[in-house]
Amino acid sequence: MNEDDRNAIPLYEQIYALAGLTQYYRITQSWEVLEDIRRTINTFQDFYHDPPEAKERGFAGTGGYYSHIDPATMRPDADVLGPNSARKNWNSIGDHIPAYLINLILCLDPLPQGDNRLRRSMEELLDRCWGILEETSSLIVDKFPDPQSDYVNERFTADWKPDHTFRWQQNRAVVGHNLKISWNLTRCAFYFQTRAKQFKDAGKTNKAKDQEKRANKALDLARNLAERMGDVGLDQLRGGIFDCVERQPKNGMLTEFAWGATKDFWQQEQGILAYLILHGATTNDKQFLTLARESSAFWNTYFLDRERQGYFFRTTENGLPVLEGEYGRKGGHAIGYHAFELAYLAHIYTRAFVAAGGAVTTTSACISRWRTTPIRRRSTCCRISC
């Protein structure tokens, strides 16, 4: 186990356990798999969630999800958790969105016709997913940005004070996390635009305005982060996305590396997907497409291990693979998830936003394109935000 998670049950591992299950359910519609997903989400809500009523159990009640719980007491505030006690972070808040929420909402909406009991059960799960998506995206928009830095805050106390004391991270930023926020807030914005149109068509004007406001706030932060990372998080000379940097660089430098100018494979994925989808959300501006192509070029040139039909976890700034120790074993976070996700979504975004001839300014236009595409070809079109 990662040393950061010792003697604890980290939420992000439970979240990503749903990634494959949700995609599998999206394909098979297996009710047994859906029940596993439902029960796992219920566990998140029962043990990690911090809603206002959690104050009755002695928690902060300030929203979001705690990052770890003690396996003995099943509480997030146990002393045995050490620096993870009563803490919230990017992974415990934001990872819900790409790991399972987007795919699960796409599975459940529209709800199935026929059996009323089944429909009610799925409607309850869909409502819960909508609630999690709105809560987590709102927290990211409201709590994570830092006006004193180009980067977001990534770790917090229970009452949302930034925590710059955690072990290796201190006051440092992971560039890939900033780009992951940019990518997923854009997906959320597409979703909120769709909801706004649905409410407007149903005559629910106030709800439509609320969804439009959510969409605009999410997209504004997504664009701002992507633009800033283009200046301070990407290699302006060689291409590629840097790893860990100081949030407050010294000596007037734009970028100060925490340990070295290395580049990790999963962070390239976040950048490629963020810039591709933002190209689709932005009209008359090619900067995001340019950054997407530069990031893709570095990935294709240096991260693919053609001798072993795989990919390298980490490279130097010049693209030379780092193979010492765990980096050469392809274990841990170098499992298939990020590579599968990149291959799947980069293809969809490229077909929907690049090959289709430009930006899609509204989600309704994207949905219309998806619905008018023959079923056998729909995998190449972006439905809502994929």
Keywords:
Glycosyltransferase; mainly alpha; disordered C terminus; 11 helices; 52% helix; two-stranded antiparallel ribbon; 10 strands; 386 residues; 2 domains
How would you sum up this structure, described in words?
The protein has 386 residues and is mainly alpha-helical. It has 2 domains: 1-170, Glycosyltransferase; 171-386, no CATH class. Helix content is 52%, strand content 6%. The protein contains 11 helices and 10 strands. It has helices spanning 11-28, 31-48, 90-94, 96-108, 116-143, 175-201, 205-232, 265-281, 287-303, 336-354, 363-371, and strands at 9-10, 68-69, 87-89, 155-157, 172-174, 244-246, 263-264, 304-305, 310-311, 314-315. The strands form 5 sheets. A two-stranded antiparallel sheet has the order 1-2. The protein is globular. The relative contact order is 0.08.
Q: What is the chain-wise order of helices and strands?
A: EHHEEHHHEEHHEEHHEEEHH
Task: Kindly name the structural category.
Answer: mainly alpha
Average pLDDT score: 91
Side by side, the strands of the main sheet go 1-2
Helical residue percent band = 40-55%
Please provide the count of β strands: 10
Coarse shape: globular
Compute the number of structural domains.
2
Assembly state of the chains shown: single chain
**Radius of gyration, Cα only, in angstroms?**
21 Å
Report strand %.
Answer: 5-15%
Poorly predicted tracts of residues: 361-384
Number of H- or I-type helical stretches: 11
The rounded distance between the terminal residues' Cα atoms is 31 Å
Q: Main β-sheet: number of strands, strand sense, barrel status?
A: 2 strands, antiparallel
